[in-house]
């Protein structure tokens, strides 16, 4: 009984000393090298102040905060943002019962938020790589329309989903059975029909057709045609990319290319049309006849040409933690360091319309404090925050390692 | 068993008859040609070359600062600081100041050439998924030397690689060790005198490909074990038949020749210790059984590939002399890859007499085995290990050579070894490091600064 009282006192004292952030505590990180991913660029010996999950000051004259963390020269970056991966949708790739990425019946309404599992073991593992947020994409079904993307925070909390029905995802290009023509034709026809319907509805008054409530699919296409909803198009070959550029111009789409192995061949056109490219920087083999121009220097070349590049580990769940190494390799192969940093922070935010990805006043405090260059293998995470809340980078992998590193006379099953 | 049972009977009968007639004339002795597709590898043009003033990781656990490496007649002649002027006279000098030098990188697990790029259906030649035991197939017969990925791997410092069949079968066939020097033929790349490997596979793949895929055995892990055991029982009988033939012939008899069987030729090679096992095996309990399987049939269980759970049985692996070839961080793609830890290689390595190897099994990460190693080293050091560059380089050089049975030839920068050497522009365990020059047998096969030494596949010519 006595013991119980004591611990109660201890708890209340602890609570008094380290109150939770919900009580409008302010945190300051000082003495950091800050990659802001804004026009401000890189700040040295700088500080940032966080309140209520938001960044309220970057490098102010005076630092005044409840909790002060001395970075001792460490590197502070925006949390990295994953793009077009399957985090939370798949636990064990080949175990169909643990996989919700695909379904034969999937169409453009296919919504990953209905399956997203914030407790997936792949999520803390992703945090090991400095990822704080992600665009999760469906794998889709039998048609080109794979469904819509969602935005999630990688806290592992039940309320991780930030936005749903965020962008429409279509998969084009080479087909194992049949022709790529049908895919492209389907996309053109859908957009064309919907646009005609919209035009008709706008010009004809009180038409019976126009009165009918639009279907979910029609609403999605409406949003795509109005440019509110990005259209993410997977395509590799330059001929497909050129078709898509025409489509963007014809329908005034907010078009984003995914993978786009040949993008480098048409880089100028892409830059001119303002089409971002979400790509895997590590592709450098002619994996198919659609991707003969894959190269490690493509990310740098596209960036140099003025294309907004997003680096990603598309489709994956378990390997997305390696995003920072992709960025490092892109730099090793010609991409400017700041461009590489933007490609996994602010460019992702801009491409997918997220309010994140920058260390700037008003932005959510998604931040990672690194021991050194965040793209280097020798660097590790010292602290990370999502919306100002400190996150752990521990996963079950650490528990397995520690169990088998611990000496014991009993079987390992007793080491917990 | 059924395949050669008749010939066993014939032998028995003929031996019995011969017993009464020692003076009978002998037919010419039948021997099996163990090397019917011999290497025709030719060293590329080379000179005596001196690399000077670099940080050298020897692959034997040493790091030598400001050191020189001398290559003469395709061999390492000397490594050290300030080699004598007499020794290096007449050498082509490469100034390697501020650069790092390592042995050529060795990948023990590759499917380049058998699953090439582009992945055309017509080039999918890596897995003979027609029978759980296809010990009769040889990966070398599938190699497309024009796979552009060979060139990319060379640009990542890879000088030697083992090409293995895929893992669909319990016993998938022979692997072949190649030198990563461009050639129009497989034989032109074949590593002279390297032993053959035999690909085996545990766990999910064989039972999935047959039980689930084709509704034939094996359907389960116990079916897997039965399959290997059955195969080695037959192979043991086959070996016995040939041993008896050879012994009888040597005794002056004229025995009936046993019926030749390609599948058992390979397994006989395993039982004779000439062919090394390379076993795709993820899980601790399965590796432990494969060790016992080797003991049951009197062969060595060889190298475990992937060995996701190697860290759980590190002691057992070291005690039994098994190498384990692993990734740093692949996981979650199947149940048997669920218990990955990034420090696996370091934990397997930490045991006395261990043989830890980092492998790729990938046409992309084969280009960055130095970076794969860096991931492990740095993650392990963050969790209590004290690994050094000079130590971990062995995971992709000397330990890999040991796994392939070629450690007497390559994998370290020691006098007399093949001059397989990489010059890196910086510490090779940096994300920014690049191989600048690569030498195989003392001949330059890649130079990042010189287009003349940048090979291009036939396939890539004229592609837009």
From TrEMBL, chain A:
Superkingdom is Bacteria
Which Pfam family, any one, appears in the UniProt record?
Amidohydro_1
Q: Where is the signal peptide?
A: 1-24
- Enumerate the SUPFAM superfamilies for this protein: Composite domain of metallo-dependent hydrolases
- Disordered: annotated segments: 390-416
- What UniProt keywords are attached to this protein's entry? Signal
The biased composition feature labelled Basic and acidic residues covers: 393-404
Is Nucleotidyltransferase one of the keywords UniProt gives this record?
Answer: no
The record places domain Amidohydrolase-related at 256-389
Tell whether Acyltransferase is among the UniProt keywords: no
Q: Which protein, by its recorded name, is this?
A: Amidohydrolase family protein
UniProtKB/TrEMBL annotation, chain B:
PROSITE patterns hit by this protein:
PROKAR_LIPOPROTEIN (PS51257)
Q: Does the keyword ATP-binding apply?
A: no
Matches recorded under Pfam families: Amidohydro_1
The entry's keywords: Hydrolase, Signal
Q: Return the Gene3D superfamilies for the record.
A: Metal-dependent hydrolases (3.20.20.140)
| Annotated ranges, domain Amidohydrolase-related | 368-442
Q: Where is the signal peptide?
A: 1-25
> Record's InterPro entries?
Amidohydro-rel (IPR006680), Metal-dep_hydrolase_composite (IPR011059), Metal_Hydrolase (IPR032466)
Respond yes or no to whether keyword Zinc is given for this record. no
Q: What family classification does the UniProt entry report for this protein?
A: Belongs to the metallo-dependent hydrolases superfamily. NagA family.
Give the protein's recorded name.
Amidohydrolase
Protein source organism? Shewanella electrodiphila
């Amino acid at each position: 009984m006595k013991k119980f009282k004591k611990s109660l006192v201890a708890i209340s004292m602890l609570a008094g000393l380290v109150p939770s952030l919900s009580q409008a505590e302010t945190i300051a990180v000082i003495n950091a090298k800050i990659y802001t991913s804004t026009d401000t660029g890189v700040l040295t010996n700088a500080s940032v102040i966080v309140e209520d999950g938001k960044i309220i000051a970057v490098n102010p004259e005076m630092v005044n905060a409840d909790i002060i963390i001395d970075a001792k020269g460490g590197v502070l970056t925006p949390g990295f943002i994953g793009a077009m991966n399957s985090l939370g949708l798949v636990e064990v790739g080949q175990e169909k019962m643990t996989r919700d990425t695909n379904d034969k019946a999937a169409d453009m309404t296919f919504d990953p938020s209905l399956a997203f599992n914030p407790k997936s073991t792949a999520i803390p593992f992703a945090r090991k790589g400095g990822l704080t947020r992600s665009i999760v994409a469906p794998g889709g079904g039998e048609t080109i329309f794979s469904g819509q993307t969602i935005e999630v925070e990688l806290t592992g909390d039940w309320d991780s989903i930030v936005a749903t029905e965020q962008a429409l995802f279509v998969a084009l290009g080479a087909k194992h059975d049949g022709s790529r023509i049908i895919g492209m034709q389907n996309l053109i026809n859908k957009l064309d029909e919907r646009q005609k319907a919209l035009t008709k509805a706008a010009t004809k008054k009180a038409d019976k057709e126009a009165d009918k409530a639009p279907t979910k699919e029609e609403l999605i296409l409406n949003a795509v045609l109005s440019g509110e909803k990005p259209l993410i198009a997977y395509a590799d070959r330059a001929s497909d990319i050129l078709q898509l550029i025409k489509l963007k111009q014809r329908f005034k789409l907010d078009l984003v290319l995914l993978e786009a192995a040949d993008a480098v061949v048409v880089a100028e056109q892409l830059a001119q049309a303002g089409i971002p490219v979400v790509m895997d920087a590590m592709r450098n083999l002619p994996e198919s006849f659609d991707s003969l121009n894959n190269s490690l220097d493509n990310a740098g070349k596209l960036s140099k040409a003025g294309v907004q590049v997003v680096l990603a580990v598309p489709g994956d769940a378990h390997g997305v933690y390696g995003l920072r190494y992709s960025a490092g390799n892109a730099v090793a192969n010609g991409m400017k360091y700041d461009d590489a940093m933007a490609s996994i922070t602010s460019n992702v935010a801009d491409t997918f319309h997220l309010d994140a990805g920058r260390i700037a006043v008003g932005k959510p405090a998604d931040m990672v404090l690194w021991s050194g260059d965040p793209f280097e293998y020798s660097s590790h995470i010292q602290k990370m925050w999502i919306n100002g809340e400190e996150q752990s980078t521990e996963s079950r992998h650490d528990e397995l390692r520690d169990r088998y590193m611990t000496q014991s006379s009993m079987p390992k099953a007793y080491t917990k | 068993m059924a395949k050669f049972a008749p010939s066993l009977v014939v032998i028995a009968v003929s031996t019995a008859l011969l017993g009464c007639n020692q003076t009978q004339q002998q037919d010419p002795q039948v021997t099996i040609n163990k090397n019917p597709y011999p290497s025709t590898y030719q060293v590329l043009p080379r000179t005596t070359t001196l690399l000077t003033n670099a940080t050298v990781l020897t692959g034997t656990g040493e790091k030598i600062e400001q050191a020189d490496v001398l290559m003469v007649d395709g061999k390492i002649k000397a490594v050290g600081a300030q080699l004598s002027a007499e020794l290096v006279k007449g050498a082509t000098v490469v100034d390697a100041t501020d650069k790092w030098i390592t042995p050529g990188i060795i990948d023990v697990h590759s499917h380049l050439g058998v699953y090439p790029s582009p992945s055309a259906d017509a080039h999918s030649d890596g897995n003979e998924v027609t029978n759980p035991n296809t010990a009769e197939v040889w990966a070398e017969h599938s190699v497309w030397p024009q796979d552009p990925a060979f060139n990319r791997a060379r640009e990542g410092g890879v000088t030697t690689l083992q090409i293995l069949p895929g893992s669909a079968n319990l016993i998938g066939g022979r692997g072949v060790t190649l030198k990563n020097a461009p050639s129009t033929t497989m034989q032109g790349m074949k590593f002279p005198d390297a032993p053959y490997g035999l690909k085996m596979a545990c766990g999910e793949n064989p039972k999935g490909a047959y039980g689930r895929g084709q509704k034939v055995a094996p359907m389960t892990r116990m079916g897997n074990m039965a399959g290997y055991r059955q195969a080695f029982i037959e192979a043991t009988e086959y070996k016995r038949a040939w041993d008896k033939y050879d012994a009888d012939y040597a005794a002056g008899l004229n025995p009936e020749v046993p019926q030749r069987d390609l599948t058992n030729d390979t397994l006989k090679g395993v039982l004779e210790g000439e062919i090394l096992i390379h076993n795709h095996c993820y899980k601790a309990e399965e590796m432990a059984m494969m060790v016992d399987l080797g003991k049951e049939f009197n062969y060595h269980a060889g190298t475990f590939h992937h060995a996701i759970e190697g860290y759980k049985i590190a002691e057992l692996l070291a005690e039994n002399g098994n190498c384990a070839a692993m990734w740093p961080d692949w996981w979650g793609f199947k149940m048997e890859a669920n218990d990955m830890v990034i420090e696996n290689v370091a934990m397997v390595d930490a045991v006395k007499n261990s043989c830890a190897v980092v492998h790729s099994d990938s046409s992309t990460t084969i280009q960055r085995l130095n970076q794969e190693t860096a991931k492990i080293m740095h993650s392990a050091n963050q969790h209590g290990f004290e690994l050094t560059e000079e130590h971990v380089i062995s995971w992709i050089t000397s330990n890999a050579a040991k796994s392939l049975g070629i450690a007497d030839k390559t994998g370290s920068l020691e006098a007399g070894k093949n001059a397989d050497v990489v010059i890196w522009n910086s510490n090779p365990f940096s994300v920014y490091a690049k191989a600048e020059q690569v030498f195989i047998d003392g001949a330059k096969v890649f130079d990042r600064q010189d287009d003349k030494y940048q090979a291009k596949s036939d396939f890539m010519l004229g592609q837009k």
